[in-house]
Every structure is written in structure tokens, then in C-alpha cells.
Design brief:
The complex is a heterodimer of chains A (about 110) and B (about 110).
Chain A: E1 3-5, E2 9-13, E3 18-25, E4 29-37, E5 44-49, E6 53-57, E7 60-65, E8 70-75, E9 84-94, E10 99-104, E11 108-113
Parallel strand pairs in A: 2-11
Antiparallel strand pairs in A: 1-3, 3-8, 4-5, 4-9, 6-7, 7-8, 9-10, 9-11
Chain B: E1 4-6, E2 10-13, E3 19-25, E4 31-38, E5 42-49, E6 56-57, E7 64-70, E8 73-78, E9 87-94, E10 100-102, E11 106-110
Parallel strand pairs in B: 2-11
Antiparallel strand pairs in B: 1-3, 3-8, 4-5, 4-9, 5-6, 7-8, 9-10, 9-11
Classes of the chains: A mainly beta (about 110), B mainly beta (about 110).
Amino acid sequence: GQNIDQPTEMTATEGAIVQINCTYQTSGFNGLFWYQQHAGEAPTFLSYNVLDGLEEKGRFSSFLSRSKGYSYLLLKELQMKDSASYLCAALSLYSGAGSYQLTFGKGTKLSVIP
Amino acid sequence: DVKVTQSSRYLVKRTGEKVFLECVQDMDHENMFWYRQDPGLGLRLIYFSYDVKMKEKGDIPEGYSVSREKKERFSLILESASTNQTSMYLCASREKGGEQYFGPGTRLTVT
């Protein structure tokens, strides 16, 4: 089966750095997505890691270790607008149709405080 | 600019009613998905489709059905709505292993 674990809630201070961890156990793993979701809105894409290592995109970076089944999202220079839920999602090959399936974690609610 | 649209942002229905939720994407994606999202449970996959007229059950298909008659449109049907189907419903589309795009969501309340 598929299993994605991430912390339920985190709190961090404006201007600081926060790391949100995600562990996964999936068969046919093909990559790891991170999405941001503000309250009442749809998730929006942040990053996608296929290979091991760190991908940097402005204030946001994402890391993947396929051998450890582990990823993290790093947010630097936190701003109040970064308060949102962050969803980790594992892409895996769905053998039944030769297609891909994205399995989501339950999300980490990040609160940024002044 | 990529776009996934859903027919309603808010919907209120009565128990036992048949409910149709429509989703349209303009990116010519093969794969389309319906999720529901509930507090503490995260996003749960109801059904997905990888081609026209093809459908596959997700994690929680009970009480739902789907229809994909055209590539751009994927409909979710609640045959007989129940109060435990009150939720936020999110449609998404994706091209094979690429980024998944979400619609704005439909908040359905069943009374």
C-alpha cells in the first residue's frame, strides 16, 4: 500500500527558516511533489523531485532521498503569507492502467507568527 | 495559462438527491481525478480516469460514480447524497508523470 507521513502542525517566526519533513512508503515510486494550500483554496504546485538531492527555487527548497524514503521542504525568510498547509505527495506508477497516481499526505499546517 | 474549472464553488443539497459535480480542463490532459478533502483526513482519491470512457476506483469510491465522455470533462456523481458526503470536492488533471493542477473546489453541504 501507499503511506505518507508528515507532521500535523508547525509554528515558526517571521523571518526564520522552517523545515517540513515527509516520509513515504510507496510501490513504483517515481517522484515527490510539494503543494501549498491556503485555507479555503485549492492546492498549488511548489516543487517536484525525481532524483536525490536538493532543488532550490527562491525562498523554497525541496530535498529527496529515495533510499531513505524521505523528503523535506525548506522555507527561508518566512513571511506571514507563508501560513498555509503544505502537502507532500508521492507519484507512483499505477500498474493497472500504465498511468501514474499521486498519493497525498494529510498536510502540515504551518503558522507563521510575528 | 492552465485551467481547471469546476461547475460550482458552493452547493447545498438534500439527503437522497442526485448530485452532479462537473470538472473541465483546457490542457488536453489524459488523466483527471476527483478528491474529497476533510479536516484531519487530508486529500482522499475518489475516482480517476486515464482516458476517455476509462475510470478507476480510488481509495473511497463508495457512494460515488464518474463519467468521462470527453477528454476535457470529468463528472462526479453522487447517486443518493448523504450527510457524510458533506465535504470539499477537488478536481485535478495531469499529463502522465507531470505536475497536477487543481480546480478551485466545490464545497458541498448535504442537509
